[in-house]
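FIELD: query
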Amino acid sequence: MHTRTRRYGSNRSGTSSEGARNHKLESSKEVIDPCQKCPLLKYKARTCTSPEIIRGAPIAFIGEAPGKEEIKQRRPFVGPTGRILNTIARKNGLTRGRDFSLINAVRCVNLNKPKPTAAAIKCCSYFFKADLRKASPKKVICLGASAWAALVGKSQGRVDKARGKITEIEI
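FIELD: result
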């Protein structure tokens, strides 16, 4: 079995990388990829997408999981939901690729059961939180219960109780 790892430490110039400082790891240590514990690993239909992070953009939209079109293009929000989001953004003076980041609660999906499980959200939380820190938005807009769960866990309750309210969180 092949195990993927992420290495933190010295970059090619020999200086300490950002990852090493943030994670307080020595250059010789490795972090095992959280994907190895993901319940979706057993599905051959599992496909991953990457976030669309615009550094310095004031807003991040958080989605649930990639859909069929997102999987084909390996980009977030390019299917029907993305078209609706783009239309709403344009009507509010926002431009995709400039004014907001797009991040999903999970990067992969089982095409037969697209709603993310709590276990999948937990496994992706490492990447999700890193993506959110990298985007560093002033406002985060969750598009659904899975997005809300990935962002705040159970600490803030259900998404229907938070709908329309501002909740301060630390990223």
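FIELD: remark
Residues 35 and 123 are 6 Å apart (CA to CA).
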